[in-house]
Amino acid sequence: MTDTRFAGRTAFITGAAGDIGRTTAVRLAECGASVVLADVSEGVDETTQLCRDAGATDPVAIRFDVTDEHAVQQAFDDLVEAHVVPDLLFNNAGYQGLFCNVADYEADDFRRVLDINVTGVFNVLKSFSNALIAAGRPGAIVNTASMAHGGAPNMAAYSASKAAVIALTKTSAKDLADKSIRVNSVSPAFIGPGAMWDRQVQLQAETSSQYFSDDPDEVAQQMIGAVPLRRYGSLEEVADAVLFLLSDAASYITAFDIEISGGAV
Ligand SMILES: NC(=O)c1ccc[n+]([C@@H]2O[C@H](COP(=O)([O-])OP(=O)(O)OC[C@H]3O[C@@H](n4cnc5c(N)ncnc54)[C@H](O)[C@@H]3O)[C@@H](O)[C@H]2O)c1
């Protein structure tokens, strides 16, 4: 049976050129949503085509940097002018930053991670919410956090940023509750295959830390060994959790973080 649970809804997805954003955007399109696909990368055009192939009518592609609050606001102003008011947001763009001991972490990169992963999430959440409030409509937001919020070794900025995403989620859920906008987050752990998995396995191996081998293949085994379900999660498994939180099946769930971690803590 065809899944049409998002028919009549419009989803705005950031990080839409990336692995998780693209997979989730295509799933939303398959389930009847109109999609607006945003990313700093030109890869967003490929996602647009994939969403069209999945059944989305007139998917919209937007190129912006989430840290540029004016560009983000302009994007929502342009959509509203075109009578497009997204009522679902997957606020997902992110950057892992450097992998090194906190004692060696470069301040410039620390700021960059916080700017993209926290201020960027805030910028999009704010512009999305204001457009929706002005239209007097309910909606749902899912922010992408990470299991790194608990303190992943060699990822000081990223871990701090994702803990902040969870706090921002819980505050926003309270502030937007009376506007009938639900705000939740997802915390993936080790998800693959994809750019982030490859990058973290390689870069953790290069840190010479006590936690991981200096052989990337062994690092992969060490990471999987820390997961009770003994495998990494798939992109589709992340998308499924996001779709649940965005859907009316989660109508009484707000201010919550779903851990997509195979039991890893
Ligand atoms: N893949 C994993 O294992 C994993 C685990 C936990 C959390 N996450 C989180 O999931 C989200 C998506 O990750 P992914 O695995 O798809 O990685 P990815 O690198 O494939 O995708 C990230 C996307 O964000 C975009 N982006 C980065 N900076 C941006 C900016 N300033 N403005 C606009 N777009 C920007 C990139 O261009 C890219 O398309 C991220 O927030 C990431 O932190 C991923």
Give a short synopsis of this structure.
The protein is 45% helix and 14% strand. It has helices spanning 19-30, 44-53, 69-81, 107-135, 156-176, 195-205, 216-225, 235-246, and strands at 10-14, 34-39, 60-63, 88-91, 139-144, 181-188, 257-260. A seven-stranded parallel beta sheet has the order 3-2-1-4-5-6-7, with helices on both faces.
Question: How is this fold's topology laid out?
Answer:
Blueprint: E1 10-14, H1 19-30, E2 34-39, H2 44-53, E3 60-63, H3 69-81, E4 88-91, H4 107-135, E5 139-144, H5 156-176, E6 181-188, H6 195-205, H7 216-225, H8 235-246, E7 257-260
Parallel strand pairs: 1-2, 1-4, 2-3, 4-5, 5-6, 6-7
Helix pairs in contact: 1-2, 1-8, 3-4, 4-5, 6-7
Bound molecules: nicotinamide-adenine-dinucleotide (NAD).
Unreliable stretches, pLDDT < 50, 5 or more residues? none
Number of discrete domains: 1
Q: Largest beta sheet, briefly?
A: 7 strands, parallel
Rounded to the nearest angstrom, the radius of gyration is 18 Å
The structural class is: alpha/beta
Q: Kindly report the average pLDDT value.
A: 97
The number of helical elements comes to 8
Indicate the percent of residues in helices.
40-55%
Q: Give the percentage of residues in beta strands.
A: 5-15%
Instruction: Please tell me the CATH architecture by its name.
Output: 3-Layer(aba) Sandwich
Multimeric organization = single chain
What is the straight-line distance between the termini?
A: 36 Å
